[in-house]
Amino acid sequence: MKTLTYSKNIFLPVTDLCRNRCGYCSFRKELKDAHLITRTEAMHLLEEGALHGCSEALFTMGEAPWTISGFESLLTKANVADLLDYLIELCEMALEFGLLPHSNAGLLEPEDLRRLQPYNASMGLMLETTAILGAHAKSPGKRPDLRLQYIARAGRLRIPFTTGILVGIGESMQDREEAISKIAHLHRAFGHIQEVIIQPLDPKPGTALENAPRPETIDLCKTVKMAREILPLEVAIQVPPNLVDPLPLITAGADDLGGISTVTVDGINPDCPWPDEVELHRRLSDYSLRERLPVYPRFIAMGWHGQRTRSQVDFLAGEDGLRAKKYIS
Question: What CATH fold (topology level) applies to the domain 3-10+107-316?
Fold first, then answer.
C-alpha cells in the first residue's frame, strides 16, 4: 500500500507587506492596510495549534518589507525593533508551545538565513518558474536566478528545504520541465530538497490573473508525472488538497499532501478551505495516510534540522521519523 504523508500546521502571517506585486497574489497589502502580527496574536494561534495537536508553525511573510518606505511604523506599532530578530522570537515562542517552526521568509541575505537556521525544523521558498513572465513584471524578488541562488545557499547550509512550481501563471510545459530540472540539479548538488510542490493557480478577484483559467486536472497530472520522472525518488511531490482533488495526482506520482489545518485558513488561498482530516482518510482509504513532521525522516536521521528544534523533534518523531506521539484530549 502506497504511503501518503501530510503535516498538521497553523499558518502565521508575520506580515503581509511585500516588495513584490505578483499578478495572482491577494496576500500582499499596501502599507496603509498592511499588518504585522503581534505577540498576543501569535501566542493565541500557537496555543490553538498546540491544543489541536498540530506539529508545524508555518511562518510566512511578504518579501523584504523593510525596503518599503513606512515599514518602520508597523514595527513601532507592534513594539518590534528588527523584523528578523522578531521572527526568531516567534520561532522560539512556537518551540515553547511544542510546535516546530517552518519559515517562508522570501529572499534573505546569507547572514539572515544563517541566523534563522537553528530555530527552524525546515524552511522554504517557491521557485515558481524559471520563465520570465508578465505576472512577475513588478516582482524583483521573483527573478529565477535569484531564487535558484537562494535555494543553493540553503543547500550549502544543510537546511531541509521545500520548494515548488506554480502552474497556470503563463508558463509552458517546457518551462515547468526546466524548473523541475533546475530543482533536481540543486538537490543532486546539495541533497537538501525534501519536497517539491506542484501548486495550481487559484485565480483571485482583483488580481491581474483573475480571469485566467484554472489548470485542468489532466494538465496537472502530466506535470506531476513529468516531475516524478525527473526528481530523485527521495524527493516528495506535494499537491495541495484544498486546491485540487489529490486522487488523480497521486495516481500520477504525487505522495505528499502538505500542511493541513483545523485552526487556520490557507493564508495564501483563503477561499479554499482545508479538507477535513477524517474525510481525507476516507477519500484516500486505498493508501496509507501518515502524519509527518515539517522535517522529513531522512533529515532527522542526518541531524540537518535546526539545533534548537532537536529536542522537540525527538519527542514527536517515531522510529521511522514520522509523527509518533499524538495529542490526547
Answer: TIM Barrel (3.20.20)
